[in-house]
Amino acid sequence: MIEFHQVHKTYRTGGRDVPALQPTQLEIASGEIFGLIGHSGAGKSTLLRLINRLEEPSGGRILVSGEDVTALDADGLRRFRQRVGMIFQHFNLLMSKTVADNVAMPLRLAGIRSRSEIDARVAALLDRVGLKDHARKYPAQLSGGQKQRVGIARALATEPSILLCDEATSALDPQTTASVLQLLAEINRELKLTIVLITHEMDVIRRVCDRVAVMDAGAIVEQGPVTEVFLHPKHPTTQRFVLEDEAMDESELHDDFAHVPGRILRLTFQGDATYKPLLGTVARETGVDYSILSGRIDRIKDTPYGQLTLALIGGDMAAAMARLQAADVHVEVLR
Ligand SMILES: Nc1ncnc2c1ncn2[C@@H]1O[C@H](COP(=O)(O)OP(=O)(O)OP(=O)(O)O)[C@@H](O)[C@H]1O
């Protein structure tokens, strides 16, 4: 478990104080994938880099598995950092070293001398990230996605229990992003690794994260399970991220509906409710007719969900709404 107790950070540059993180209380459970989302300058990198003390907090305490990492001396910090891997947006590979040597680097730094042990561990790591035939290549000969896989192998070399991902997919195209996220999810499952990732894309959060914190101006403004935060966003910043992900502008949509008769509802359903033939049944039972104005059926990590905007006309409207709510559908009246 990673715990932040009233942790805050102010940078001092050019005689000026730049507040980057307001006093923050946060708990990240062991084995989960925790996402931090926010716009540029929101404080995501600062929060992430405080976990392995690449940034020193201005105050507060950070505990990892109960150990106060803010109190570690240089030697303790060096050993602690072996338990925390990190990957970066621009990969940070050594361009003059081969793929195998890049992955071997943390092992050498950790004091492992045996050539055969290093070779065996590097081979296993490269196999795990799908790069077993690329060991002798140089980073310049690899695609962006392959470079990030080298970054992941290198980060896993010392068998850490935490992996920090700093915009790890921001430099990648959508297809490569999906395959790197899938690799992170597999590693999380197989190695029971805690992953903390930062991103400015809700899609990344939706695909792999269990829980999310939304950051704005140096503070966490909303946090919770991704299903909850994504389907029922409360803070305006969260609502904007969700709308960006849906690639639709709510106000535009409302203009389109202006001429549609009837009551307009947004239905949100998740899990088993997603695949039930509910709408037809409710329409038959209550005499209500409906037209679907917009909708999306997708997944949040492993949970299927749907969000439909409907116009309801005629019949017993109150009974229809009660029937939907009784079937675990979240009903929001838009008009
Ligand atoms: N080393 C530094 N010195 C001074 N100010 C800094 C430093 N690093 C970050 N800041 C400032 O702290 C605030 C938070 O920055 P941070 O990089 O944590 O945000 P972010 O959400 O990660 O942004 P981005 O997505 O652009 O990386 C910003 O106002 C930034 O300018």
UniProtKB/TrEMBL annotation:
Signal peptide: none annotated. Keywords: Amino-acid transport, ATP-binding, Cell inner membrane, Cell membrane, Membrane, Nucleotide-binding, Translocase, Transport. It is a peripheral membrane protein. It is found in: Cell inner membrane. Residues 2-242 form the ABC transporter domain. GO terms for biological process: amino acid transport. Pfam families: ABC_tran, NIL. Its main location: membrane. PROSITE patterns: ABC_TRANSPORTER_1 (PS00211), ABC_TRANSPORTER_2 (PS50893). GO terms for molecular function: ATP binding; ATP hydrolysis activity. InterPro entries: AAA+_ATPase (IPR003593), ABC_transporter-like_ATP-bd (IPR003439), ABC_transporter-like_CS (IPR017871), ACT-like_dom_sf (IPR045865), MetN_ABC (IPR041701), MetN_ABC_transporter-like (IPR050086), NIL_domain (IPR018449), P-loop_NTPase (IPR027417). It comes from the Bacteria. GO terms for cellular component: plasma membrane. Part of the ABC transporter FtsEX involved in cellular division. Important for assembly or stability of the septal ring. Belongs to the ABC transporter superfamily. This is Cell division ATP-binding protein FtsE.
